[in-house]
Write a structure and sequence with these properties.
heterodimer; A: mainly alpha; 76% helix; globular; B: 504 residues; alpha+beta; Dipeptide-binding Protein, domain 3; seven-stranded mixed beta sheet; disordered N terminus
């Protein structure tokens, strides 16, 4: 119980610190949302009139205080740029980013774990070098670059999907999945490569343990050793990484959403920062922070379930 | 000269019909059968439009789209030479400072209501309240049946230019509702909008003038020029406006190009208040060192129009074209001027360029080499748009910048007013008594020909004193898929979707 309370307090503190840092950042960077809305041809009087209407003429400290007090009451404020409640903007976008995240995650786990085990199995063979080579390629390719290549090859040349035409899930779910496969794959490849490397290392470490020798001595086959005994132990070492991957894919692949034109959380975040939309940026940043903290917390619990020897209170 | 007011100022005006089509290059469409009617056109835009309120959303890109939704009492014709009646059917200039507009019969808003005088006064009041340019000069107005007379504080024969401001239903914007539910009288009506995705416009079947050809126009928001190009190649958009050299990446024959002016002048703006640009000789040296033709060749593939004044060449009547040759490239002269000013060994400065506009960044890179030949070192600092607006435009904290300046209205004052010494938007800190006097004389002149001459002289002063280096109207290419044609010219930064049609 004490553990949960402590974790909860850490969550609150993290979120508060992050929102405070966003506030400080907004204080430092130049930019006036009213001028951005009106453009260069508007008179200074017109800009001032709009500032007053939007409430951005108030000191940022006051705006921050208003946002916090609203936030605590469950009111995330109104977006300055879109003039809509922040909550409804996020409500439309979270499913999009979550879908992208879940699809990427499925790809990462489906490819990463078996491939990791396989690469542990083929150690000391020519296959290992081939896999290592592919793996390094996967890790070192930035995902936005992969996206551009996918758009070029599969979009413009082979016409397997139409770049620049996001299809919403409600309109056509099959079309949506077909389109989202490519951004999901772009997110997945570098993460998969990292996962493969981790799984392989963890497996190889476990293979050196005494219980493996015992199992071999008992005449257990290599496949059973790998999948039943070693994998179960190795996965404990990999869970924190999987947690990090989940947190990162769910909080939005900012660049990927931008490159493929997917109206998700990441794209909204870029737009909110470039338009100096304070309430929207604050809420998005807090949302992302909460996801990361909560998932790390869940990872702790999962690890404990997998390996009861690890006491939650020991980990902090 | 005579044209503009022969039509607009003098009494009765013909029932103006919009010239539907006819870009410079091709596509002279016609109302006759044979031209494609109907269809959906998907237009890609690299700026997201999220506010359609004509009173508070006045960015160039927003206006370029809602131009199709709203109309004012008058609208400007294709070459900016005259103002045609729109929601008003007739305009009379009663005196130097009084205009009477007669409301056109049978004009309907997109919501089906007839336009009444109440709507007109509501819109004018709202424009005054929102501090829209030009409306501060309105002293009062009086309504008599279907006529409204507007009295001005000071005479302004260019006043009609401001009357393109949208007419909206009374009460429709009391709480800024128009931002997301725009209602106007234009050839297209607003249909739906999805944040960060698209806005859809549908044909207004009750339009008083010549109706649009297409049933629907969808404006899709994409990230940048590269994404627009990709989307066009993939067929997910039917058209976009290309700047700079991006169009060279398309295969000839795979698109219909419509070259037009961008109606904004790209300028290397020099902050006249900071050293060494406070010295006119240094500014002139920079002007002589910059080769506008080379910028045009390398950045705009030769499609831009070289200018020497802030007034766009699209306003042919007012643009002083002679200034374009005032500072023909002359490196030797630049060096001499620098020596006279005490910068024998040259100097160095930083140009802050808004990174969202690749054209300006590319132009800066070309100019770096040109200036180096005269011994001037220019360092490029890219800043994001919000930073540019705040630190360069508003706080004037910069040495030099490159930007395209558009005008709010099709009238030279919109381009020249910022050069008055005390203008709030005089971000280049130019101060000249000679210009101030000439500008004032021009804007208060009551004879058109005299006024035009004064505006020409005012521009010559700007050029002689070399307030900044005016380069070019950067030009834009409207790139349409082969199945679409037509794009009318406009002296405003606008895309006239009513002139686009499907190829049969």
């Amino acid at each position: 119980m004490k553990y949960f309370i402590r974790k909860f307090l850490i969550l609150i503190l993290t979120v508060f610190l992050i929102s405070l840092m966003t506030f400080v950042a907004f204080h430092v960077i130049p930019g006036d949302p009213a001028r951005l809305i009106l453009g260069t041809s508007a008179s200074e009087e017109a800009v001032e009139a709009l500032r007053e209407k939007l409430g951005t003429n108030m000191p940022l400290t006051v705006q921050y205080r208003n946002w916090i007090s609203g936030f605590l009451r469950g009111d995330f404020g109104t977006s300055i740029k879109y003039r809509m409640p922040v909550a409804s903007l996020m409500h439309d976008r979270i499913p999009v980013t979550t879908l992208l995240g879940v699809m990427s995650l499925v790809l990462i786990l489906l490819i990463g774990i078996p491939l990791g085990i396989f690469s542990a199995r083929v150690r000391n063979t020519p296959g290992e070098h081939v896999l290592n080579f592919i793996n390094i390629l996967g890790i070192s390719f930035p995902n936005f670059f992969l996206s551009i290549i996918f758009i070029w090859i599969f979009g413009l040349t082979l016409h397997w999907f139409t770049p620049g035409r996001y299809i919403s899930f409600d309109r056509d779910w099959a079309g949506c999945l077909r389109f989202m496969f490519w951004p999901a794959l772009s997110v997945a490849i570098p993460q998969t490569a990292v996962l493969v490397k981790y799984v392989r290392t963890a497996m190889l470490e476990q293979l050196r343990e005494d219980y493996v020798r015992t199992a071999r001595g008992k005449g257990v086959g290599e496949t059973a050793i790998l999948y039943v005994h070693v994998f179960k132990n190795a996965i404990v070492a990999v869970v924190p990484l999987i947690g990090m991957i989940i947190a990162s894919v769910l909080s939005g692949s900012i660049i990927i959403e931008q490159v493929y034109g997917i109206p998700g959380i990441g794209k909204l975040l870029i737009s909110s920062v470039t338009s100096r939309d304070f309430p929207l940026t604050q809420t998005l940043v807090v949302y992302i922070a909460v996801i990361i903290v909560v998932i790390n917390f869940l990872v702790d619990i999962v690890i404990q379930i997998i390996d009861p020897r690890i006491r939650l209170s020991d980990r902090s | 000269m005579k044209k503009r007011f022969a039509a607009a100022v003098l009494a009765v005006l013909m029932t103006a019909s919009l010239t539907a089509c006819g870009g410079k290059s091709a596509g002279s469409s016609d109302a006759a059968a044979g031209t494609g009617e109907g269809g959906t056109f998907i237009y890609g835009l690299s700026t997201e439009i999220n506010n359609f309120d004509p009173f508070t959303s006045t960015t160039a890109d927003a206006k370029s789209i809602y131009y199709n939704i709203y109309e004012g009492l008058v609208k400007v014709n294709e070459d900016g030479s005259e103002f045609l009646p729109a929601v008003a059917s007739e305009v009379t200039r009663d005196s130097d400072s009084a205009y009477t507009f007669t409301l056109r019969d049978g004009v309907k808003f997109h919501n089906g209501q007839d336009v009444t005088m109440e709507d007109v006064t509501y819109s004018i009041d709202l424009a005054i309240k929102s501090k829209i340019n030009g409306f501060d000069n309105i002293k009062d107005y009086s309504v008599d049946g279907n006529k409204i007379t507007i009295n001005l504080n000071t005479p302004d024969i260019g006043f009609l230019a401001y009357m393109v401001q949208a007419i909206v239903p009374a009460g429709s914007d009391d709480n800024g509702e128009l931002a997301l539910q725009p209602v106007g009288t234009g050839p297209y009506a607003f249909s739906d909008y999805e944040v960060q995705d698209h806005v859809t416009l549908v044909k207004n079947n009750d339009y008083w003038g010549e109706p649009a050809h297409l049933d629907e126009v969808e404006v899709r928001f994409l990230a940048d020029q590269t994404e627009l190009l990709t989307a066009f190649q993939a067929g997910s958009i039917d058209g976009f406006s290309a700047y700079g050299g991006i169009v060279s990446q398309l295969e000839e024959g795979t698109y219909n190009p419509y070259y037009s002016n961008s109606n904004a002048v790209q300028v290397l703006a020099l902050n006249n208040a900071v050293k060494p640009f406070d010295d006119v000789r240094v500014r002139q040296a920079v002007a002589y060192a910059v080769d506008a033709d080379e910028v045009n060749e390398l950045v705009n593939y030769g499609h831009a129009v070289i200018v020497g004044t802030p007034v766009i060449p699209g306003l042919a009547r007012y643009c002083n074209t002679e200034t374009a040759d005032d500072y023909a490239v002359d490196t030797a002269k630049a060096k001499t001027l620098l020596e006279e000013a005490g910068y024998k060994d040259g100097f160095s400065f930083t140009v802050k360029v808004p990174s969202v506009y690749p054209v300006h960044v590319d132009s800066a890179q070309v100019m770096v080499n040109q200036l180096a030949k005269a011994g001037i070192t220019m360092n490029i600092e890219q800043v994001d748009w919000a930073t540019w607006l705040d630190s360069v435009y508003t706080n004037r904290d910069y040495e030099a910048t490159i930007i395209s300046l558009d005008g709010a209205t099709a009238y030279p004052a919109a381009y020249l007013s910022r050069y008055q010494s005390d203008a709030g938007n005089n971000f280049i800190n130019y101060k000249s008594d000679a210009f101030d006097a000439k500008y004032k004389e021009a804007t208060t002149a009551t004879d058109e020909d005299v006024q035009t001459g004064l505006f020409m002289e005012a521009q010559q002063i700007l050029s002689d004193e070399c307030c900044s280096v005016f380069i070019e109207d950067i030009s834009t290419v409207r790139v349409w898929a082969p199945s679409f044609e037509g794009c009318a010219d406009s002296p405003l930064y606008a895309i006239d979707f009513a002139s686009v049609s499907k190829v049969q």
